[in-house]
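User: quick one, fold this
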Amino acid sequence: MGVRISMDGKGRFLENNLVVRLWRTLKHECVYPCAWETGSQARASVRKWVDFYDRKRPHSAFGGKPPTLVYWQRIEQNQPDQQVQRVA
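Assistant:
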């Protein structure tokens, strides 16, 4: 019996790189500069950073646009006749 490596589909190992980069950015921009006293402070700060990262922070891969804006623009381009309910 041989060992078979499972990657759950084509290119899955590459997707891990994106997660690693996200965690690195989170640590350097949010975690390391802060000295939280409680877990709830840490949770609130990380939640605020993730909201900033998704909705406001410019990303070079998207031409300076935040990911949320790019996502909704792609949805609207793919489904122009359908109304899409946005979550604010």
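User: anything notable?
Assistant: Helices lie at 12-31, 39-55, 67-78.
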